[in-house]
């Protein structure tokens, strides 16, 4: 019994360390309270002039890869992730006039990626013909190259969580979102986000322990 408790504690410790490491995969992750990076300023524009309004092209250039990596962690397939993100940006273009600012646009993209990933997974289950991608190509090498073998095992185990649990953990640890932001992106209540995250970490620990 003592050995089992020790094994569970070690597995959950590994999970916590790995989930923290997910933040390093996100090139757009900035510390809480830091100002949002401004788009590159042309060299011929004086520094005293206010920056030009952010465009869809600016968001595509600066946020596309981060959104693709987010989708990869949700659907476990880079080609599908790219399709999800492309559709999210197409939706952003269609709704651009109704968005109040840059943060609202980024929030729209996150929600669209989560919903698009859910739809992708539903289509796979319905078709029943989906063959999981080979482990070597399921996620881009760039995304996981910096992780240790143990950490890669934890990230791979994300695929075995319930979709809602995976969404919450990915948005929390990779996206660095608050409970309120996760609730907005997923359509869940803040209380459900909190309880789902707790259960998901415990479940991930069980999966890692069982595979070790």
Descriptive notes:
With 212 residues, the protein is an all-alpha fold. The protein has a single domain, classed as PhyR, sigma-like (SL) domain (Butyryl-CoA Dehydrogenase, subunit A, domain 3). Helix content is 66%, strand content 0%. It has 9 helices and no strands. It has helices at 2-21, 56-75, 78-95, 102-127, 141-144, 149-157, 163-174, 179-186, 190-211. α4 (102-127) packs across α8 (179-186) and α7 (163-174) packs across α9 (190-211). The chain is elongated, with a radius of gyration of 19 Å. The model is unreliable at 30-41 and 133-142 (pLDDT under 50).
Secondary structure layout:
Elements: H1 2-21, H2 56-75, H3 78-95, H4 102-127, H5 141-144, H6 149-157, H7 163-174, H8 179-186, H9 190-211
Helix pairs in contact: 1-6, 1-9, 2-3, 2-4, 3-4, 4-8, 7-9, 8-9
Domain HTH luxR-type: 158-211
Pfam families: Sigma70_r2 (PF04542), Sigma70_r4_2 (PF08281)
Family: Belongs to the sigma-70 factor family. ECF subfamily.
